[in-house]
Specification:
Elements lengths: L4 H12 L2 E2 H11 L8 H13 L3 E9 L2 E8 L1 H30 L7
Antiparallel strand pairs: 1-3, 2-3
Pfam families: PadR
Protein name: Transcription regulator PadR N-terminal domain-containing protein
């Protein structure tokens, strides 16, 4: 099943290193060139779902300025799922590219 784009970028952000929630939000926005701006409630709901699916796990917790900061990491299942999605996207892009090449290569003929 295809991943939603926010899920893809959350997993991609965590593939590099464990991150806390705000770090994930910043990484997703950066990786998506600003197209995806996660709100904290949306992110934590997604992290809960991804944890329930075994794709991410709590890495550690620390107190910062009296607040608990949770760091999440990608699990092996998450790495496998992300790699499968990358391959699915590559395959789909290759199919589309092969179909549009002939169209791009020859000039369009406009009716007279």
């Amino acid at each position: 099943m295809a991943m939603q784009e926010p899920t893809f970028f959350i997993l991609t952000a965590l593939a590099e290193e464990p991150r806390h929630g705000y770090g994930v939000i910043q990484a997703v926005e950066s990786l998506s060139d600003g197209r995806i701006r996660l709100r904290p409630g949306t992110l934590y709901a997604a992290l809960d779902r991804l944890a329930a699916d075994g794709l991410v796990a709590l890495h550690r917790e620390e107190a910062v300025d009296g607040r608990l900061r949770r760091y999440y990491r990608l699990t092996e299942r998450g790495v496998t799922g992300l790699a499968a999605e990358v391959e699915r996207l590559r395959t789909n892009a290759a199919i589309a590219a092969a179909r549009i090449r002939p169209t791009v290569a020859r000039p369009a003929i406009e009716p007279a």
